[in-house]
Amino acid sequence: MKAWKIDNPYENDSTVVFAETRGKAKVIAQRTDTCEDVDFTKIIIHRFKEADSQYRGYSEMDWYDHDDKRFLLSQGWYCSDDIEYDDCKNCEDKEQCSRWKDIVLEREGVLIL
């Protein structure tokens, strides 16, 4: 099964879906929270080969699934542009999060490598 990165052209929001073809991925995307109100022709879609191995029988990756979240964090994803230090300091996956590293640097002047 092929993985596809889906972007909402109107919001800073994306998801990953699994489908055999680009067209089928767009159909699935229309049923996601990310693109439920987006016209089929406006959905932005890119092949995401790095996520092919993450397919476990579901049509969409789930940010609230620990394994999916850790994988997405390893690929540069993060919760939100508006995330604050206090919002994510207790996140068990913060060490994999690029945004967390930026937040610590901004707040504490410490660079996490």
How would you characterize this protein structure?
There is one protein chain. This protein is of the alpha+beta class and 113 residues long. The protein folds into two domains: 2-77; 79-113, no CATH class. The chain is built from four helices and three strands, in the order ββαβααα. It has helices at residues 22-29, 66-74, 85-88, 98-108; strands at 2-7, 14-19, 44-47. It has a three-stranded antiparallel beta sheet, with helices on one face. The chain is globular. The N and C termini lie far apart (34 Å).
Summarize the structure.
By secondary structure, the protein is of the alpha+beta class.
Radius of gyration: 15 Å
Percent of residues in β-strands? 5-15%
Weakly predicted, low-confidence segments: none
Terminus-to-terminus distance: 34 Å
Instruction: State the major sheet.
Output: 3 strands, antiparallel
**Element order: H for helix, E for strand:** EEHEHHH
What are the main properties of this structure?
single chain; 2 domains; three-stranded antiparallel β-sheet; 3 strands; globular; alpha+beta; 113 residues
SSE inventory with pairings:
Elements: E1 2-7, E2 14-19, H1 22-29, E3 44-47, H2 66-74, H3 85-88, H4 98-108
Antiparallel strand pairs: 1-2, 1-3
